[in-house]
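Worked example 2:
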Amino acid sequence: MARINNDMVEGSRGKVGKDLVYKTRNKKTFLSKKPDMSNIIATKEQTKNRNFFAEAVQFARELKKDPVRSAAFKLRKGETLYLAAIKEYMRMHGDKKVAKNFDSKFWFDRLTKAGLSKRQVNSALFIMNTGKITNEDCQKMNNISKPTATRDLALLTGKKIIEFNGVRGAGAFYILGSWWEEFGS
């Protein structure tokens, strides 16, 4: 993999011909050989998930072509029709138990009743949507200082709402904790 120092391709991503790929990592652009995925065999679960996602993409494409359905579709601030349609398809056709348990309004009420501030609720909901949160995510999302984010995450950890991954420094993040299990079944 070769580092590129050329203003014309800086920040580029994607395929170049059949054999090369531009990659951007930490605001640095690299040119590398395209990875050979021909010997990779997907598991049944991976194949099922890929097919499900392909169905969601097809739904979103069809929705974009239909102006009547597109106009009726409700979008959140900053959300594109395409991504909103994929999320909606996955919510409606995925595991009903998971969809019910991860409904944001339901969890907002539960977390508020658990005595959390709005910032702390936002952090917990962020983990539900993304799978993890870092101190930096918490700072940016809530527009707070690093010490305040650290205190919020420590409080959430103390209540077992989130769990620390055990890594200190740059690799540190938090995931959902055992508090959620009592509502899972």
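Residues 40 and 46 are 12 Å apart (CA to CA). Residues 101-184 form a domain with the Arc Repressor Mutant, subunit A fold (CATH 1.10.10.10).
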